[in-house]
Amino acid sequence: MSELYANEPMMDMYIFETTQNIEQLETCILDTEKAGYYSQNVVNEIFRIMHTIKGSSAMMLFNNISMLAHTVEDLFYFLREHKPEQIDYSTLSDLVLEVVDFIKGELDKITQGDKVNRDSTILSSKIKDYLEELKQQNAITELIEKPVIEKQSHYYIAQDKTENKINLHMYKAIIFFDDGCEMENIRAYTITHHLRDMADEIYYLPQDIIENDESIHLIREEGFQLYVKINKTYNEMFEFLKQTIFLKDLELIELDNDEEFKQFYKPIKKIILDTPPVMIPKINNQNYQEGKEQTITSSNQSIISVNVAKLDKLMDLVGEMVIAEAMVTQNPDLKGLTIVNFHKAARQLHKITTELQDMVMAIRMVPLSTTFHKMHRIVRDMSKKLGKEVKLELIGEETEVDKNIIEHISDPLMHLVRNAIDHGLEATKDRVTLEKPKIGKVTLEARNAGSDVLILVKDDGKGLNKQKILDRARENDLLIKTENEMTDKEIYNLILLPGFSTKEAVSEYSGRGVGMDVVTNNIEAVGGSVSIDSEEGIGTTITLKIPLTLAIIDGMNISVGKSRYTIPTTTIKESFRPKENDLIKDPDGNEMIMVRGQCFPILRLHELYKVKTEVTDFTQGILIMVEQDEKTLCIFADMLLGQQQVVVKTLPSYIKSTRKIQGLAGCTLLGDGNISLILDIGGLVNLNG
Amino acid sequence: MAESVMQELYEQEEDTQKGRFLTFALGSESYGIEIKHVTEIIGIQPITEVPELPEYIKGIINLRGKIIPVMDVRLRFKKPFREYNDRTCVIVIDIKEVSIGLIIDSVSEVLSIPETEIVVPPEVGKGNNKYIKGIGKTGNDVKLLLDCEKLLTEDEVDSLNNIQ
Q: At the top level of its lineage, which domain of life is listed (chain A) (predicted)?
């Protein structure tokens, strides 16, 4: 196993590729399930993925994964070759998804450096049974005679086999490995694996090298016998085999006739006879696959995974560089000098640094689509188990959220979707009696709202029962106010409290009594909030408000005295310089302005935050009209500085713990290194009444 | 003396940071803080004011992309405010994952004060010696050793009263 950990980069590569493959596989399955039919392309695709996983797992010595992948490969080989007509697609999907879960679990272990040891044989035999069943159902009698193992008896026929038969040389090789190198069977397998693409036909003894550990002893004693038909000269072949690790002894003989091949021929001939027409499409398929494989590997290479901490560091460094740039180009020593070329170069530098900054900010943002798509799987599994027909609708999956936040919301979302299906949606037959569409609908929606990202989990189920909630809350002493005083929203929000769960029976998916407070905790951990809306009989909507922590927002920078503030552009309706006669002052001293026949309150930022400024007259400064929560307010500032994308940072925790400042959502760094405070418009409009 | 050198060597072996203090001047007094809390010392930076905070928290600064609050220790100890000059320094300290900058008049040096030379502060009624963990003796001088944690956490009630 030492080899295993010495190969760190290879391991990373393996984990990365396999994870991608598995994800691709999952999407494949879920997509086809919706279509209710496995197209030829999909079967090919799955076959290819499994083949890749099998190969790379064997290479990394994860035998359980490789074996499992092998059985699935067999299954799909059958599907591809025989195109059986009666397939129980849903069982098939279940099986493959089970495999997906198994491999995912093992990959997790590998990532954490644990030993990979779960036994895959039960699952494998399940798949084998299914394959048998399939074969019987589809009455391909000749093939049943041939046990599954035999198909594994390793005749690999490469794609370009047809034309160049003439140039084929036949070799017999006997390979001995170093004493004590261990796992001779895997090493032997690796050789065949490498040869497979080049060789026309490969046979070897012992045949069951991977499946049977006994083969190790055989290889040790008698050597690994390899029979190859290949389009290579003796020398090429010899060189190739000589590269084998731990090679002790190699004997390579060129054979004049295929006498010795005969012993392997029986099963193959049979197959060729059995299914002569299939062979041609098979070659096409493989060529097609080959092409596809290439495009996929190239796309794999264009993505790398990077540690987020490194990105944070990079972002800080770029920020630092921007400041350094300003220090150079605006250096006081340069004053009064005529240096045209310097300014030209400086402008170029500025352009590049700005671009760099934008890029670094964009790198951290990840669309929600991956997280959303994970829900397909949950919906599928649950609708099967609970016998409810559910359709999942995704809206706004392209909304980008900071990577850190995505990690935090994935679990709560899963919980909410489960809740929606388990508790929210009625059983299918109830829906029919209620004259609702038979298929329940769960909607996941994401959108940017002002300075937040809103994620909505909607279902069109039975909604929340206020009375039940109140009863339960009373039982658990969770009521703070008297019942008549509570608004609907307050009642619904009761279910977010710890120790509240309305589901009487505990089901497999939800209702273990932990309930919604876990969701609340998780969301609050990233500084977000949860709110619930419901209408009985129509459905429930749970809204997650994810804060702008580290989210990038478009902001308008304004200045008041020496201070800078940033207003999220999305909240701004307009900005204008008021005329004297539009201003109104009521007897309480509240200032207002009349715009196009409507009256809006004015907030003097310099008064609110007690900032010294010379601009106190409305006609000298500027008014910015902002709107949030359907309330409008005019903010009075000295002047607009310009619009910019800013990365939101939270105020230092020390300041937050000292005092909660109203109307501030965070702060951000401006291009020149100055700090600007981000205004929380929602807070400001409510502050004003 | 020889004994204290031995002690020092011993402690250095144990932990190079233990018993070492960064000393700085605040008016006529000399203060010391444990070096293990100190992240770095920087010159005075442009400070962004944050509204509605107690007077002694001057605002926030941008330390290479990291935003940290700064506290004027003079004001914190209810001493008169003094204009910042080029000797004014910000000592960035890190306590329980919280970074904060302390604005002080000037930094002096790093001293090793063995535990034997540190005494508990005398009980003098009220006064602000609740931030003082001990008094270190070095030669003829005394250094007031700050309790950084108290500097940040204590007095919350007080600070709220200040602004209202």
A: Bacteria
